[in-house]
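Thread: Newbie trying to understand structure tokens

Hi all, I'm a second-year student working on a class project, and my supervisor (Dr. K.) asked me to get a predicted structure for one chain before our next meeting. I've only ever worked with sequences, so writing a 3D structure as a token string is new to me. If someone could post the tokens and maybe explain what I'm looking at, I'd be very grateful. Here's the chain:
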Amino acid sequence: MNDKYLKRLTYELGKEKLDAFLICPGEEFKFLTGFDPMFCERFQGLFVKKSGEAFYICNLLYEEELKNALPGSIKIYSWFDGERMTDVVNKALSSEKLIGGRIGVNSTAQGFNLLEIAANMKVSFVNGKPLLEKIRMIKDEDELDYLRYSAGIADKVFEKVLDIIKPGVSEREIQEFLMESMVSLGGDTPECIVGCGANSSYPHYSDNKGIVKDRDIVLLDYGCTYRGLYSDMSRTVFVGEPDAKLRECYELVLRANEEAEAMVTEGAYVPDIDKKARKILDEKGYAHTLINRLGHGIGYTVHEAPDIKQSNKIKLVKGMAFSIEPGIYIGGEFGIRIEDIMIVNEGGRGERLNKAPKELVVL
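---
Reply by user tm_fold:
Sure, no problem. This is what the structure looks like when written as tokens:
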């Protein structure tokens, strides 16, 4: 069990006036417990009470496995397929004095199960995802070092991948090269997006069937984990000389990236950073094409708090880690994105973790 973060969670429960927190299997559960049980339609989850005590509810299918995986102090309430799940949940919540309580839920809690439970007993569920993000938004020095190392892996892979990008190479081949290279350098759970030509105009492109052509654009967005902490970097390169429009757009995105990153420091107001990047893109009327936030937090997941966007009215604090990734996306034509991971380091200064070159690359 991750005692450091469980203590943070129980502390926040009191502040948020929650009686308990339900954490169903998934990334957040694995992060807190170190265990990743199979998760199906049958209700199960760990309840952490504001007192710090915890108990688990699951189907009999999982009981023995969970007894071996969780500390012995965690009581397990199990139910059989022939029983009504809500009867066992009612018994457990009554025994744990949570009937009538407010319970936060994590991002993998299944709505149909929660609705059934709430309809059969007096208990209210509330969105607890922001609370879970809050307790791990500030990274300690070890975590920041792991982020640095993970970013270094992404940087080294960029040097290698340029050698294989040429006309006739498929997006899939580039993806496979990126992922294999990250693993060879010590990275875990590699992920990547590769979009060439018009496919680069889709910010979260999910296919890989495109073939690189002469005078093409190739967008690379990739990362991996090191000791559980993610990297995430984007670079856009050109196969053959880009035309004047592409050059203009690239230089705008690069300026937006660099000037927004220069604003990162302890106490900086997040909406101002987002506005700065969009103001630069709008010098040529392209701000409307940046249809997403300027950046996202990063850590034990690729996307977590804090978001770098105008509606997130907070100031930066030491230990925060997030991306700065302005882009121009013209649907069906092209997309350009430059993304680095930034941290607010112990001196309160902004530190760019990705050192890979950002100047325009023509292959």
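A couple of things are worth pointing out once you decode it. Residues 141-352 form a domain with the Creatine Amidinohydrolase fold (CATH 3.90.230.10). The chain has a mean pLDDT of 97. Feel free to ask follow-ups in this thread.
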